[in-house]
Backbone:
């Protein structure tokens, strides 16, 4: 049964990625309560963290509004949190004309070279990061396409103490 799911899931993810890359700038963007969306998405990961005895911190500024497509933004937050294992921190804040979303987590044996490839299709970092959960190496490519479709930027950086930070910046608009 799982063998049949693999091509279907991967095919669906590749189709979604292609649609975001080709027509992402044409998706309808509406004013959304981004704080609520991030909070709701994070709740399912909090339950998983508790079950796996992991630390998961959430710091979400209230009343952050974004122009975007709801399902794509939910997918973005899910991808970033799904990639973050072990100790995780999720932050959402608005400062001036920028909305910042960041996910930090501890990693083992990750090099700057690995970080430079994280958004490439089918790239899979070392096994210590994915904890044997598998994956197709396409999630962060999809995240990048979603961010670009929303006129944002996504970056990955390796910080001190073996912490990987994936940060997203979206323009904050005042015409809501």
Residues:
């Amino acid at each position: 049964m799982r063998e049949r799911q693999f091509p279907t899931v991967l095919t669906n993810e590749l189709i979604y990625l292609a649609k975001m890359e080709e027509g992402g700038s044409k998706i309808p963007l509406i004013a959304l309560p981004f704080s609520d969306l991030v909070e709701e998405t994070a709740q399912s990961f909090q339950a998983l963290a508790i079950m796996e005895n992991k630390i998961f911190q959430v710091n979400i500024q209230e009343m952050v509004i974004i122009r975007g497509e709801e399902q794509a933004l939910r997918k973005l937050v899910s991808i970033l949190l799904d990639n973050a294992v072990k100790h995780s921190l999720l932050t959402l804040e608005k400062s001036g004309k920028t909305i910042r979303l960041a996910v930090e987590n501890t990693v083992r044996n990750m090099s700057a070279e690995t970080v430079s490839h994280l958004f490439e299709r089918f790239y899979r970092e070392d096994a210590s990061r994915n904890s044997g959960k598998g994956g197709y190496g396409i999630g962060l490519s999809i995240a990048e396409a979603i961010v670009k479709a929303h006129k944002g930027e996504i970056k990955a950086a390796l910080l001190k103490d073996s912490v990987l930070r994936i940060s997203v910046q979206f323009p904050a608009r005042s015409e809501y």
Summary: Confidence is low (pLDDT under 50) at residues 127-132. The chain has six helices and seven strands.
